[in-house]
């Protein structure tokens, strides 16, 4: 049976590196889902509210997709650097931006849906 040898001191544990890569790929999936939602909002639901509301919400979703993709890449690079150097994990400040923008988009969509139903 093979014995597991520890990594050299200058090399991060592969488990953490691979976990970081999986997290990065989750950010990319999130970005693609936001982009698809934005395109769908603009082109596939013409009965939802008015055209400017659909355009605004769809554009906001696509901008959020860009933020998620760039934020995911930046975070992955920061974590990889920290793993290689043995530094503490970096703060994830961009998560607040994504969470707040998502809440705003959902609230605007909810209000638009209610107003559309009532009129």
From TrEMBL:
It is a multi-pass membrane protein. It is found in: Cell membrane. InterPro entries: DUF202, IM_YidH-like. GO terms for cellular component: plasma membrane. The chain crosses the membrane at residues 24-45, 52-73, 93-115. Residues 15-82 form the DUF202 domain. It comes from the Bacteria. The keyword S-adenosyl-L-methionine does not apply. Keywords: Cell membrane, Membrane, Transmembrane, Transmembrane helix. The keyword Transmembrane applies. Its main location: membrane. This is DUF202 domain-containing protein. It comes from Speluncibacter jeojiensis.
């Amino acid at each position: 049976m093979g014995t597991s040898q520890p990594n050299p001191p200058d090399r991060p544990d592969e488990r953490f590196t691979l976990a970081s890569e999986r997290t990065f790929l989750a950010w990319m999936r999130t970005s693609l889902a936001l982009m698809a939602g934005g395109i769908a909002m603009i082109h596939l639901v013409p009965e939802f509210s008015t055209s400017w509301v659909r355009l605004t919400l769809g554009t906001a979703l696509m901008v959020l997709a860009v933020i998620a993709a760039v934020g995911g890449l930046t975070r992955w690079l920061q974590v990889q650097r920290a793993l290689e150097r043995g530094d503490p994990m970096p703060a994830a400040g961009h998560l607040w931006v994504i969470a707040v923008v998502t809440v705003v988009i959902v609230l605007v969509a909810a209000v638009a849906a209610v107003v559309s139903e009532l009129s």
